Amino acid sequence: MSAEAADRVAAVASSRPSTPLQTSWFEFLLDGSLLEKHLKKANPDPTPVQLIVQFLEQASKPSVNEQNQVQPPVDNRRNRTLKLLALEVAAHMKWDLDVLEKGLTIPVLNMLLNELLCVSKVPPGVKHVDLDLSTLPPTTAMAVVIYNRWAIRTIVLSSFPEKQTKPGPHQMNVLYKTSCLQLKEQANDSISVLEGALQLKKDFYVHTLRTLDLLAADTAANGETESSTAGLCISADELHCQVHYDVGGIFFHQGCTDQTAYQKARDHFRQTKDLLKKLDSTVHVHLDEKRLAGYWNACKALTEDCDSDSQTTAYDQINSLIRAHNYQAVIEAFIRDNVTHSLPNHFRQSVLREFLYKSGLDEVCHKLCICNAIRDSLEGEVLSVRFQQLLLKPNKWMVDFILEVCTLSLEKEHLSETLRRKIGNFIKTLCENLEELPLLFVVSSHKLFIELLKEEERKVLMEQMRKKSATINLSAKPLPSFYDIPASATVNIGQLEQQLILLLEPRKIRQTLIELHGLAERSYWKVNNKWEVPPDYINVILSIKDNLTKDLVYILMAKGLHCISIKDFAHARQLFTACLKLVTEFSPKLRQVMLNEMLLLEVRAHESMTAEGSKERPPPDLVSRVRGYLEMRIHGVLYYFLMSLCPDVPLRQVVGEECVTFMLNWRENDYLTLQVPPSLVMNNPYIKLGQLLASTCKELPGPKESRRTAKELWEVVVQICSVSIQHKRNSDGRLSLIKHRESSMGILQRYFRSMSHFMLLHSIVRDDIVNEVTAEHLSIWPSSIPNLQAVDVEAVAVTVTELVSYALTLNSNNQSWLITQADIYFVTNQYSAALNIYLQAGAVCSDFFTKVVPSDVYSDQVLKRMIKCCSMMNCHTQVAVLCQFLREVDYMTAFKALQEQNSHDAMDSFYDYIWDVTILEYLTHIHHKRGETEKRQIAMKAIGQTELNTSNPEEVLQLAAQKRKKRFLQAMAKLYF
């Protein structure tokens, strides 16, 4: 009985409940009828796509000749049968490319479809574009069509930033880039082939399980036999519908470089839509109708197609109005949409952003912003930062327009009470944010105020209005509310100062300061030399004329910053809120300062929650505020208002850094790469650095030639890490990044997601190829540095160490980061620590070695380093065992290790983990030579196990090796963990 059969019997006999055993790939070779039975199961295990991978992987395994040289796969009956089985699985799936593309990698699917071309008798060595499809047998022509459909679909799909996670044979991942490049080079030929297929009006036939079986039985079939015409019939309309959709997709993809391609795409999508309406059923048409509708809308907008379509009338109307510069009509359409809700919010926001980039349209932007804010309120969304900035300096026409849009948005039959309540809350928010009494009276006298707000709410708002009317501006006289507490002259100044140092409650701080100023008029912000505010703000605060107000602002800010540093965010909010309320009345400059600091407070508070294990995404309001801050200096309405009153608002550099860090950490890559204004990138070096990082992360799955930003990021970071500073200004603002070297290094250490950049830089500056540190995505970076002597080696080394340590605090089970950490220990000669981490990396990706460790984790390089670690610790038997793990067993190293007599490991207790008979035979020889009879007997016992018999089938030998690998790695983990 084979080892696998024995395992099955044991599994059945076990008292524990067992899951059905997975059918092995080789069983389908033994039983010709098994495949069809397996595929008809409700949930076959393995699944069809897994079977295709297994069949092709086994059929493409290279062979080794007598000289131990690797040869291409043998073209024998076994391999041909495996390839045919893979085709039969695909035929069972009716050649649905949607399903095949989701389950298979590009190289695997390329191999599968090339096999289809081969069995379909497509003439070898002839370009498909040179074939006349009308003269080919039906299944032959269909094979050509399927291949070229896949080719153009793959070009489109591979351009999307999507991580490759699909399984495939070992060689296939290496071929991914090559396959994509070849397909792109042949794109025009594939399009021509498919356009030729659209000219054919006859039905098509595609291979089925039956026709493939016929081909296998009739090896002399020449394409004209029954096997080529008895396949599954696909009508011309069905095929044309699918081909029009696929060809339209490739033309749309080419439109970014060729504007006329959009017109071709539109024509093909129109044909697709017409054929879909014509077909009664679409069994053989596999397309995403939502994506088709999106393509159609985009093409119409890009080609200015005025053709009407009832489903996209709203989009067409807006696009045509924008092209005609009829901005008032766009505003009216937005107001109507507040009732119909036919336009999605993201489209409305994109229209607003488009107007923001045009000069002279401020009023249009304000009105669209108001329309969007009311739509957000109707849908229960958070009001945007841009709208809140509008409310900082409103005027009469703006308030009138807000009330008008609110009124029109409620003009709907059978309006629900929920929507009325939402608009009521919006009116309430408006009243709470307006500071000018005339504007408040405009709102309070409007019919919506009376109809939508309850009596109690109206009373509260009216009381607030009365209080505001009695408020005196601090710029002329201190606020009465801050100075209405009488001072006590009997209290000792020293006691009050001590109390002032300890207090965190804003009102008590204010009361204590009033009492101190009543006793002695002096500067109490100097009482504690540990009270510190950022240097950027000192001059602004100390320029406050009223001494009491100056002390209060300084102390509230200093205490708030201290609370943030000790992560007491609750008290920090209280202190900053009180400070904001105070400065709002007399200093727009300080008001903006406090808004910025409160934003930084919320960002750090959320970062702290994340560091403590919270996986909650930041609220949309916080993300909007961060975006608002980044955009404020260029486009913000608030910015222009502030600049008109106080042209020198101090902006702390760290706020910008933290905002960019925040956007990167929460993967707002689309904003940093697509939505952030270009002028902002040019003027803010940290946004520029963030954009480079975001762009590089987005381009990681793409082909090598598309990684322009990776090269640019490499150059920037190398210059940041350089000792000398280049003073020549580049057009992309890189000088700013280099000048702020210390701060830039801090940002990189805080949010550099892909560590490979520093790992490669570390290896280059060490100039030690053998002991280089590995990491993910090393291939995207340049491999050389022009001015290597200028790089600060110490800065790079410190950054690498801190970066990996910090990354592992965030995710201690990331095997790639663990391998990188182990490499750092290895290159610094810390072999025990390195082996510990290498074993951890293998354990986390194999459920503590109960499964096979993936070859990309325990690559030959990692295994060789583990071998050296064991060797340096004099664990020579462990070295010999690990030599078996290599793709090619390293007998030279294993024999040399076994010759060592001064071994610090358990020696013969590891013999049970050796499965290579050659090593076991060498062990028996060396123990016999030394006269070590007892150890020789242990080695003889190990070599005598039946499952190691070289006459066993390959599957049995592999099973025996995997069992020993698992047990050995578990034993090593117990030793070193």
From TrEMBL:
Q: Which GO terms describe its cellular component?
A: chromosome; integrator complex
Keywords assigned: Chromosome, Nucleus
Task: Please give the InterPro entries that the UniProt record associates with this protein.
Answer: INTS8, TPR-like_helical_dom_sf, TPR_INTS8
| TM segment ranges | none
One of the protein's GO biological processes: snRNA 3'-end processing
Q: Where in the cell is it found?
A: Chromosome; Nucleus
Main localization (coarse): nucleus
INTS8 TPR repeats domain ranges (all copies): 491-976
In terms of PANTHER family, this protein maps to: INTEGRATOR COMPLEX SUBUNIT 8
Short name of one Pfam family: TPR_INTS8
**Similarity-based family:** Belongs to the Integrator subunit 8 family.
Q: Kindly provide the name given to this protein in its UniProt entry.
A: Integrator complex subunit 8
